[in-house]
Design brief:
Helix content is 43%, strand content 17%. The chain is α+β, with helices and mostly antiparallel strands and 164 residues long. It has two domains: 2-53, no CATH class; 80-160, no CATH class. The strands form two sheets. The chain has a three-stranded antiparallel beta sheet, with no helix packed on it. It has a two-stranded antiparallel ribbon with strand order 4-5. A hairpin with a 2-residue loop joins β4 (55-59) and β5 (62-66). The protein is elongated.
């Protein structure tokens, strides 16, 4: 039953999702470490309940509930802002090393270019996690650009940004 409703919700348009949720009288309780979803069964004889582990995480100026993936086949969507920062970081590094002008970076101040260059020093596995979307949920663009003292050793970087 749970899988049937989950499949219907995944493959339905928003108006159909709304109808499914209303028909099953879905209720959601948000607790400190979990989200509990309860719903009426099809025959309306009993209510079923599903508990999902979740935690609050600060993402920029927002506080969001994050649900860790329980299935290794499910990958979170990559954060486009972080991906753009990584691309800009390597472009800024190239600009500093070769002194070739780069139109994409021409409007940035020297200070911001310095912040971008520091991002290019991140450990390869941190860069790969950002590009794959598997970075810690509280790693934001603001956190990356405002990190003034990014350590050069990779284990310390992992610890600083929540990978260790």
């Amino acid at each position: 039953m749970h899988r049937d409703m989950a499949g219907q919700l995944q493959n339905s348009a928003n108006h159909e999702k709304r109808k499914i949720l209303l028909d099953h009288r879905v209720q959601v309780q948000i607790r400190e470490e979990q989200v509990i979803v309860s719903f009426q069964t099809v025959d309306e004889a009993e209510r079923s309940e599903v508990s999902i582990d979740a935690k609050l995480a600060k993402q920029g100026s927002e506080l969001k509930f994050t649900i860790p993936p329980t299935n290794a086949n499910i990958k979170p969507a990559p954060n486009a802002t972080l991906q753009k920062l990584v691309a800009q970081a390597f472009a800024a590094q190239d600009l500093v090393l070769t002194d070739k002008s780069n139109q994409a970076l021409s409007d940035y101040s020297r200070r911001y270019l310095g912040q971008l260059v520091r991002i290019s020093w991140l450990a390869p596995d941190i860069i790969a996690a950002i590009m794959d979307g598997t970075q810690p949920v509280d790693l934001t663009g603001r956190k990356l650009t405002r990190a003034n003292a990014i350590p050069l050793d990779w284990p310390s970087q992992r610890k600083m940004f929540g990978f260790a």
